[in-house]
Every structure is written in C-alpha cells, then in structure tokens.
Amino acid sequence: MSNSIDNNKNTQSSTAPTPYNNFDLQFIAGIQFIAGNWVKGKDESINHNTNPYNGEVLVEIQQATKEQLNEAFEAAEQAQKEWAKTLPAQRTALLQKVIQLMDDCHDEIIDWLIKESGSTRIKAEIELDIAKTVTVEAATYPNRVHGEIRPSNTPGKENYVFRDPLGVIALISPWNFPLHLTQRSLAPAIALGNAVVLKPASDTPITGALLLAKLFEEAGLPKGVLNVVIGAGSEIGDAIVTHDTPSLVSFTGSTPVGKHIGELAFSGDYIKDVALELGGNNPFVVLKDADLDKAVDAAVFGKFLHQGQICMAINRIIVEADIHDAFVEKFKAKVKTLKVGNPSEENTFIGPIINKNQLESLQDKIATAQKEGANLILEGRIDGQLVSPYIYTGVTADMDLFRNEIFGPLVAIVKAKDEEEALKLANDTQFGLSSAVFTGDMQRGMNFAKRMQAGMTHINDMPVNDESMVPFGGVKNSGIGRFNSDQVLEEFTRTHWVSFQNEPRDYGI
Fold this sequence. Notes:
Blueprint: H1 26-29, E1 32-34, E2 37-39, E3 46-50, E4 57-62, H2 66-83, H3 88-104, H4 106-117, H5 121-138, H6 141-144, E5 148-150, E6 157-165, E7 168-172, H7 178-191, E8 195-199, H8 206-219, E9 226-228, H9 233-237, H10 239-242, E10 248-252, H11 255-265, E11 273-277, E12 282-286, H12 292-304, E13 314-320, H13 321-335, H14 356-372, E14 375-378, E15 382-383, E16 386-387, E17 390-393, H15 400-403, E18 410-416, H16 419-427, E19 431-432, E20 434-438, H17 442-450, E21 456-459, E22 475-476, E23 479-480, H18 485-491, E24 493-501
C-alpha cells in the first residue's frame, strides 16, 4: 500500500470504556489503588486520559496528593512484612494466576493498549506477549533466590549469606511500552517478596498501572503489597523518590529524568539503590557482505515499530559505502509500503505519536535536519498526531539526527567508508543501550559486536529485543542496573551476612 495517512478517524462516545467484561468495574469510579482500595485522588488537578489517535477521552482521573503517596508507602511497608513471609509456592501460584488472567482478558488488554498508548495491533500483541513472558519467568524466582554458606578463616566461625527482599520498591514506568515495562519490574519485585508503590506515566495510567493492579487484585494479592498513585510530577514526582520508605527506585524513561532521579536518590536522609533504563541512540550497522533484503526488513521493523517510540529503536543506520546506494533504494521502497493510520486496523504498521509535546519535538527535529543540510529522500506527512516516515541520507556525525535520540518515525542513514569507520560511527555517542550489525560472516559479526559500546548487540537482527531469560540494560548514558533473568534477582534483593561463632574466640587480649 502507499505511504498514505488514513483520515477515517473513529469518533466514538467519550464514555469511559470498560476494561474487562468479566471483572468488577469498581475501579473506574475510584482511580487510585491504595492499601487494596480503589479511591479517588484528592488533588485538584485532573488527568485527562485520551486516545492519541482520535482524541477520545477515555477516563478523567482526579490525581493523588503527597498525603496519598504517604498512605501508599505506609500501606506497602506494613503489607511487605507479611508478604515476605509467604511460602515460595504461594507467590508462584499468584503469578501463575496473573498469567492466566492475561490470557483470559487478552482482547480487552489489546484494546486498551491500542486506545491508550496508540499501539498498532501488531505492537500490542508483541507487548502483551513479552509482558506475559516476563511474568512466567518471575513465577520461577521464588524458588531460584537463595543464600550461601561461606568458609571462614576464624576458628569456630560459620558464615551465612542470606538473600532477602529489599522491602518497598518505588516503580516509575513509561508510556511507550507501558504494560511490559511496568510488569518487567513489578512481577519480579512481588515474586521476590517486596511491596511496590507504582507511579505510571501520565499518558498511560490504565495500561501502565491500573490494569495490572486489577489483575493482581483478582489473582489474590494481599492488600497493600501493590499500590498505584497517579499524580502530577510537580506534586508527587520527586516525592516518590525522596520518600524515606523505598529501598530502590526502578525507573524507565529519558536520560535527563533518570539523572534527576539518581541525584534525588542520593540526596535524602537515606541513600537508595536505583535501577535506571534510559535513552538510546541505537546504531544499526550494515556491512558490505550482508544480505541486503534481510537487512532492510530488519531495519524497517526495528525503526518504525510503535512509530519509533522505543528506547531500543534504530536511531542511526550505518552502511558501508560499497552497498550504501543499493541499501537506500531497497529501504526506501520497503518503507513506502507501510500503512500509517488507525492503529486498531490489522494492516496498520505506524500509528499516532503519543502526545502533542512529542509531536512538536519531531517537528523541531525535521526543521533542524533541513537547516543542517541532511538529504531528505522520503518526506512524510503530518496529520494530527499521525506522522509518516521521513528518511534522511548524507547524515554526518555533527548533525542532530546523528547525535540525539529521535523517538519517532524519522531515520538517519550514514555512509561509512569501511568496517572500521562503521564501528567508530556506531560508538560515537553518549548512549549505549542496544545495537545491531548485519553481515554474512558470523565470526566477523561476533568480532564487530564485541567491540560495540552497548549493553546489548544483536547480529543479523534489529536492536528491539527484550527476552526475560537474558540481562537487559545499557551502558554510558543509557542507564545502570540490569533487568530480567538472574540479574533482576540481585537488583531486587539484598544480601545479609550473618556469622555464628560456635566456640569461644581467642581475641589475643
């Protein structure tokens, strides 16, 4: 199909939709979830939760106050003490129930992801699948966490290293993959005996928090173990980080906000651990021996999935000079077949930009690219919050498109004279989240990948990868800490060395 904008926008009623056909809908009337109760916020401000495709009002949420945030932390602190005592089998069973509910409510969850986050149906199915997969992995954690017995050089001493829950975790989740990127921290935290206070992004309070709270409630999670506070950043944004109760702050979002959270975490009365997954400037390198058709398919998917609004999305495509022109021709032809429009339709690949601020940022980048002299070979269109692809060639290392995260359907193609220059260009960034390289020689690809400065590198694939059984995270300005697999066991627990002197010790005094 042509690279056209679908103008047949849905104009449904602004009545708040029902998220489940088979669940009690009490939470629509009370939109905060504190101490196991659905209550109204007490702040004067209102969160107008809208569909980014057609502007439909989904629900209006009266936001939480600092006092309600305090109530949430108090409830979490009290509930965690008992939750940590539950048997591993009980926590596993609860998470297995959540997985079953995800299957039972598949269609409702997909519908919400499309309506609230602007997900295409393709992206929504991917997101629900990986959110469910991370929950399956988390259900194994209660039986995988363990302590150690260590030797001692002191006669008669026994050393035990216990691994305990952190206590209460503050979780701040983003809007782009709201269900998955919340559940990626939430499910392991609960599986490991912690309690959680969750603040979702303002654009996605349902799919990033309330929907999951309802799933966990229905699965039988005790009251207070999970609390959701939806509020303005100016009211509770800093307070959730500086509050004395949480031992760790888990945040996924932009690098500037992540740096601010890091500063706050060290500024209060108690120093807190942080797990930060931040921005990316992800390179996709195509070496001259690559299969061009396969590289093009991967590049198109890895750049334009969810409109490029993914921390792992391709930012720069770096192509060796020998194949540059051929790649560009094939890439442009493939991109022109993508349908841009109503995200609920099966064949739509590019849906709406999440909000007007994000749209304005992309418009600024388009203007800057023109000013800096990038070669626009495919000019997109902007209609409301729909943006069709913009492709730029002749991009150099001093241009904004090269240096900064795009987070939208704009792509920079960079020509490298050879493999070594391609590597230098790939590493020429303050970020280091995900990356990819295409080549016909696996050993060449492995040697290249090991020299890339990133937390994750994929050979003959695109950089948008997240699997629950491998560590996920970045280097440099892309964050600290790791999610998934055994690494999250360490992130969301603490060690406690306890020694036992079982015979009198000679202190030499």
